[in-house]
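Q: I have 298 residues here and want to know how they pack in 3D. Can you give me a structure?
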Amino acid sequence: MPVFINASSRVLVQGMTGREGRKHTQRMIMSGTRILGGVTPGKSGESVLFEEDPVPVFGSMAEAVAATGADVSVVFVPPKFAKAAVLEAVEAEIGLCVVITEGIPVRDSIEFLTAARASGTRVIGPNCPGLISPGKSNVGIIPAHISGQGRIGLVSKSGTLTYQMMYELRDHGFSTAVGIGGDPVVGTTHIDVLQAFQDDPDTDIIVMIGEIGGDAEERAADYIAANITKPVIGYVAGFTAPPGRTMGHAGAIITGSAGTAAAKKEALEASGVLVGETPSLTAQLVRDAIAELRSSRS
């Protein structure tokens, strides 16, 4: 039972006719995702050819959902149009909206996330790589070939580290990998995904990747201590980051004594999470945990 998406997920691509939307739609289709259409205002009735199969373009999310019954959308539109795109998805009562776009003003994100929460639409992102359940569905920009199916659940702020961890653990595979994004405000949090993995019978071990800035990892640590019984392995990026300078993501900034990698590592370890010092060492901790699980079940 994959987390948030499955082989039956019906996906619309907002911004499919643009360069990035077209490129990643092709990649999603090749990895088995059910792409039912694209949405671009003013282009209703057109189509885009992928592998000799035309995918229809709709002028609005309302039109697209009515025609296809889609339950997932993925947003590949420029930052200045992102708020309108997500609000349109929310108004169309889409169940899951994955926002790949980076550089969205925080005020815009707050506005569409508030609307989404009120309506029941789950938003992943913004500024995220999306999510993948290998062999079932891939919504976003995560390369499908780097890892196969398995029983590891991965939640990460960083797209690049998502890819690296999936590749490092390709010998075991993943139930689902979710990139939640590194902006100061995101729709789906570490805690949301941790609970989803806890409830998922096809996930045995959880990997959580965080980074400097904010207190999301500390809050996740408290939640793990109180609610998560499956093994959790962690990694925190940014041990050498200088205070006061953003590192990659808008939310990855140390302010004063808050948000340091050391403080996050300490909080996670206090909650029983094993934390690796590098991605490769973290992957080895996961392999060790898998071996221990198998030994305890034999």
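Q: Anything worth noting?
A: Residues 138 and 197 are 17 Å apart (CA to CA). The chain has a mean pLDDT of 92.
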